[in-house]
Amino acid sequence: MSEIMQLDVRVIPPREKHPAIFRTFDELAPGESFVLVNDHDPFPLRYQFQAERTGAFTWEYLEQGPTVWRVEIGRVAE
Amino acid sequence: MRLTLSSAAAPDLDLAGLAGAALRRGFTAVELVAGDGHGIEAGDRRAAIGAAARLAGEGVSPAAWRVAAADAELLAGLADFSAALGAPVLTPAPVIGAEGWRDLQNRYESAGAELLVRVTSPEEADQMLDVSRGDARLAWDVAASGGRIQDPAAMISACGDRLAYVALRGGGPEAMAQEGQGIGEMFTSLALARYSGPLSLRPSRPEFHRAWSAWLGRRGGWGCGSKAGGGNRMEPVALPVAGADR
Q1: Residue of A11, A64, A72 to mutate for B, most B C-beta atoms under 10 A
Q2: Contact B101, B130 (CB under 8 A)
Q3: Which among B138, B178, B188, B241 is the top mutation candidate for probing chain A, defined by the most A β-carbons within 10 Å of its own β-carbon?
Q4: Closest CA to A11 of B10, B168, B189
Q5: Which of these, B102, A45, B37, B104, lies nearest to B89 by C-alpha position?
Q6: With contacts defined as CB-CB under 8 Å, which chain A residues touch B185?
Q7: B139-198 pLDDT, tens per residue?
């Protein structure tokens, strides 16, 4: 186990990916973050976050392809 | 977690081919199953050193050496090999008492090697931790009971900080067909537990080998007479889709 929370969704069944991501996000304490790993740019997810967790999240690309994308998604500190 | 390709997904490939297949999917680690086509004989220390160097040259690391048998004498004989490979031996639980376990563990520690014991349920994890007095490092061989992974959070809790490896049958090209089996929940639980070790993937059943072959970007088909001679041709692969009959 490590201190870095990482969710790799590359082999999760497609319809279970976003619920897994949002559940992980919702478990974060304010100021915490996790690294999302995917096999394509998850930018549509960012729009979903903007719609459903407006102002509550941060989004930072750590790696942008061509094979793997890593995004650090954080919960805004209160 | 670190996604890892098991050689069971491409058991005919040599080491370089296996590393290439892993990298095409963005995986930087491989699990080596004893007896697969990677060409490394169990116990051959020199071959292990060479394999570790060749994999490092490809930018891939060996995540584990998987054996089918749990004979204590055989396992003891693999300690130097494991150290040379730079990867733990992944074994079913050996049938030995606390003293036998301590001897085995000492053998690995003195060789600078590591032994991971495969468990499939919280009860097995508890048993192994009892026998080893909390010393064993555990590998969760994920089994879908009744078509679903049962309570992953309970399994992760039972293993605690001794969880060092996770092996999943499926994923990859089977992901679509595994909807509803609890894989999303399992990955979420692992992430929330801050699990950062390997998570190896291999076909759940032999009939998926062709789908894996395509998913790994390999040319040609599978088995005798199917070696790619005709360039890029690849036949479409049909997978059962969960809920398709709804």
Answers
A1: A11
A2: no
A3: B188
A4: B168
A5: B104
A6: 16, 20
A7: 999 977 668 888 999 999 999 999 999 999 988 899 888 888 999 999 999 999 999 999
Neighbour tally for B25: CB within 10 Å: 19
Backbone angles phi, psi at A31, to 5 degrees: 90, -10
Do B7 and B40 form a contact (C-beta atoms < 8 A)?
no
Which string of b and e fits A1-37 if b means at least 16 CB within 10 Å?
Answer: beeebbbbbbbbbeebbbebbbbbbeebeeeebbbbb
> With an 8 Å Cβ cutoff, are B196 and A4 in contact?
yes
Look at residue A32 in the predicted model and tell me its pLDDT: 96
Half-sphere exposure of B91 (CA within 13 A, CB side): 25
Count CB-CB contacts under 10 A for residue B240. 9
pTM, rounded to two decimals: 0.88
Model confidence at A33: pLDDT above 50: yes
- Return the pLDDT at B201: 96
Does an H or E element contain A70, and which? Answer: strand A69-75
Three-state secondary-structure class, residue B96: coil
A70: pLDDT strictly greater than 70: yes
How close A77 comes to chain B (CA, Å)? Answer: 19
